[in-house]
Design goal:
4% helix, 7-stranded antiparallel beta sheet, 4-stranded antiparallel beta sheet, mainly beta
């Protein structure tokens, strides 16, 4: 996929880029696999804002993507579609019983391709196998963390994980973050890289485009009053956080919680499954 530059007919469009939709074969989703997406605007069931900077945005329909196709299924790719709820493209497939499913589209997936799920299927792009049946060095996506639960890892546009080792009933996977993690060999994974790999290079260009996505403006704490934020206040002018005269003052959230370097992962059961952390890989 290439990134398409928009002709600068307005100041907001100067420097703006958008996706190339050449891979998409239809603009009309399957009605039986869509649901109206309810807007919560970052609020919980009590009406309180629990996630800031959300609200508005264009109306969307949620696509019911199947992240745990049953073993033994054989299907044919009928359409490659756009999904407004994720960065990756999705593929509409039809199995041998005539039932339709949505799955993540890999970068080389095309209309007419065959998709198979099983222990001994071929290693073709898009096929789904248990990690024990995939050779070392292969790149995979849509990886399960628990057998039968469905794909949880490597689902964003352009990402993949590499199978580096197998030992003691576990596969060692190098994830896009640099983390090396152990996953049970019985867990399923799809062959190949998730499509739409140029998604990260798109330039938003103007504020209104973010509003269409349901993202509201964010205000920096240093420009607030002291009563509104730990970074606020001061006798005029700009002042930084964590440097110069503020050395030793850690950046904080509006509620006083430390951020930017504050460790949030502590005493998790899955810590023993991490062979090498993502932070350790960045220090090298």
């Amino acid at each position: 996929m290439a990134v398409r530059t928009i002709k600068p007919t307005t100041p907001g469009q100067r420097g703006m880029t958008t996706q190339d939709f050449a891979q998409i074969t239809t603009k009309k989703p399957l009605k039986s696999l869509t649901r109206v997406k309810q807007k919560r605007s970052g609020r919980n069931n009590q009406g309180r804002i629990t996630t800031r900077h959300q609200g508005g945005g264009s109306k969307q329909f949620y696509r019911l993507v199947n992240f745990k196709l049953p073993v033994g299924i054989e299907a044919k790719v009928e359409q490659i579609e756009y999904d407004p709820n994720r960065s990756a493209r999705i593929a509409r497939i039809k199995d041998s019983t005539g039932k339709y499913h949505y799955i993540l589209a890999s970068d080389k997936m095309r209309v007419g391709a065959k998709i198979s799920v099983g222990d001994d299927v071929s290693l073709d792009n898009g096929n789904r196998l248990p990690l024990k049946s995939i050779p070392l060095g292969a790149v995979v996506h849509a990886i399960e963390l628990q057998p039968g639960k469905g794909a949880q890892l490597a689902r964003s546009a352009g990402v993949n994980a590499q199978l580096t080792a197998k030992e003691g009933g576990y596969a060692h996977l190098k994830l896009p973050s640099g983390e090396v993690r152990k996953v049970l060999l019985e867990c399923m994974a799809s062959i190949g890289v998730v499509g739409n790999e140029q998604h990260q290079n798109i330039k938003i260009g103007k504020a209104g485009r973010n509003r269409h996505k349901g993202i509201r403006p964010s205000v920096r704490g240093v420009v607030m009053n002291a009563v509104d934020h730990p970074h606020g206040g001061g006798d005029g002018g700009k002042h930084g956080i964590g440097g110069g005269k503020n050395h030793g003052f850690a950046p904080r959230t509006p509620w006083g919680q430390k951020t930017l370097g504050y460790k949030t992962r502590t005493r998790k059961k899955s810590n023993n499954l991490i062979v090498r952390s993502r932070s350790a890989s960045k220090r090298r």
